[in-house]
Amino acid sequence: MKKLLSILSVVVLLSCGANEKTSEHNQSNTATHAILEKNIKENLEYLTSDELEGRSTGSKGIEKAAVFLEEYFKKNSIKPYFETYRDSFNIKEQDIMGYNIIGYVEGNDPKLKNEFVILGAHYDHIGYGKKINGDSIANGANDDASGTVAILEWANHFNTSKTNKRSILFTLFSAEEIGLKGSSHLAERLKAENLNLYTMINLEMVGVPRAKENIMAYITGYEKSNMAKKLNTYAEKEIIGFLPKAEEFRLFMRSDNYPFYKLFNTPAHAISTFDFTNFEYYHHVDDEADKMDFKHLTNFINAMTPALEGMVNAPTQEIKLNHE
């Protein structure tokens, strides 16, 4: 009897050890990057600091921003898509160089990894604006450091979790403010390389909340595809809606999603929480970090995460252009 109990004890111990190892293995496989308000605030405050001089394309300030973004990707082991993180282009009419910064997380599905999703935002701004109370630096917190830090968080999240079946490019564009130069260059480059692009989402001004009675965010070009509806389905709640003013002001064509839509003929939209009633500092020197609602920004990023996971992991291409 004692011998039998001894054998059973060994079996139980071995079983417990195996279970612990299995548990550890499962935990490592399902580890995710925690999207925390303090990290978002810290990154946005640097990008909007006076040291960066408003991040106008070609300036010393935007070069500092580019280095910061590269270091973020490198520190968090996010790979470059090209040979380096920089996608360089020349703006001949102004004789300046611009740099898109691009991180890459490969998909884990043998077939679906050949399909790509692009998540992007522009990290440039206008540099200097009309001086108010001695301040002439247009720091561009909402426009579009808010979108930039969201992309950084998602890059870290997907690179940590390793759950994405499709491959993802995390694209931070320069020269948006002078005519979508950066996104146009990258779209042309990727098209020439025959990138198999499934969808593209561009974040534009997401640092302030809408009124409580409104949906959290809206999508430009709402009627052009079923993206909004599918994102809401994946998120299991309504987080993306329609804004009539977006159509009135033709916002779909005025941000970095448009070159991808035009060249790839695939769903490519911008998502924003700025609705013309909740932020008065567009291209203004008071578009500062202290005007951002970091709780809202953190909630928005977290709410969008399962929507993005649904999009990159759907077994088929469920998001489609509507026939016009």
CATH superfamily: Zn peptidases
State the end-to-end CA separation. Answer: 80 Å
CATH topology, what is it called? Answer: Aminopeptidase
Number of helices: 9
Number of domains: 1
The CATH class assignment is: Alpha Beta
* Unreliable stretches covering 5 or more consecutive residues: 1-30
Radius of gyration in whole Å, from Cα?
22 Å
Strand content: 15-25%
Which structural class is indicated by helix and strand composition?
alpha/beta
Outline type: globular
Mean of residue pLDDT values: 91
CATH architecture: 3-Layer(aba) Sandwich
Tell how many strands the DSSP assignment holds. 11
H-E string: HHHEEEEEEHEHEEHEHHEH
Largest sheet: 9 strands, mixed
Q: What is the helical fraction, as a range of percent?
A: 25-40%
List keywords for this structure.
324 residues, alpha/beta, Aminopeptidase, two-stranded antiparallel sheet, 9 helices, 18% strand, globular, disordered N terminus
Q: What's the short story on this structure?
A:
This protein has helices spanning 2-29, 37-47, 60-75, 141-161, 181-192, 227-235, 244-248, 258-264, 294-313, and strands at 79-80, 86-91, 96-105, 116-122, 127-132, 135-138, 167-173, 197-203, 217-219, 240-241, 268-272. The chain has 324 residues and is an alpha/beta fold.
